[in-house]
Amino acid sequence: MERITSLVFFASFLIIFVSVVNQTRGDSCDESLGLCEKCDERCKAKHGPSCISKCDGEVGMLSCTCTYECAPPLPPKGNVCSGGTGMCSGKCPYKCCDTSCAQKYNGGRGFCNSLGNYNFCQCEYPC
């Protein structure tokens, strides 16, 4: 039980730390580009050099997904609060995190943040 409590404390601390570090980060969007052939090259050609490409799915049916910044960062003068909904899932990392944040926080948006071996769902919302 003590180990679980320590892990929960550690995860909460990381979410708070990451939310402070990423306050200027914009929203991220995902776009599927079909099969994985030359995935990274196609993503960067369409969304620029800062996008992240990923191939996932079932073997033989891998799909190329591009993640890119799709909106300007939230204005620093606005009252923006940060929170989280736990860990991001490998099956639905970005869309599920964004949906969870929208359900948990009024006007909330979510994105996944990797820190070490952990992939946290971080939320930003007006407060």
UniProtKB/TrEMBL annotation:
Write out the annotated subcellular location.
Answer: Secreted
Q: Which UniProt keywords apply?
A: Antimicrobial, Disulfide bond, Fungicide, Plant defense, Secreted, Signal
Q: What is its main location?
A: secreted
Entries under InterPro entries matching the protein = LCR
Q: Which residues form the signal peptide?
A: 1-26
Q: Which GO terms describe its biological process?
A: defense response to fungus; killing of cells of another organism
Q: Which domain of life is it from?
A: Eukaryota
A single GO cellular-component term from the record reads: extracellular region
Q: Which family does it belong to?
A: Belongs to the DEFL family.
Name of this chain's protein: Defensin-like protein
Q: Give the species this sequence originates from.
A: Arabidopsis thaliana x Arabidopsis arenosa
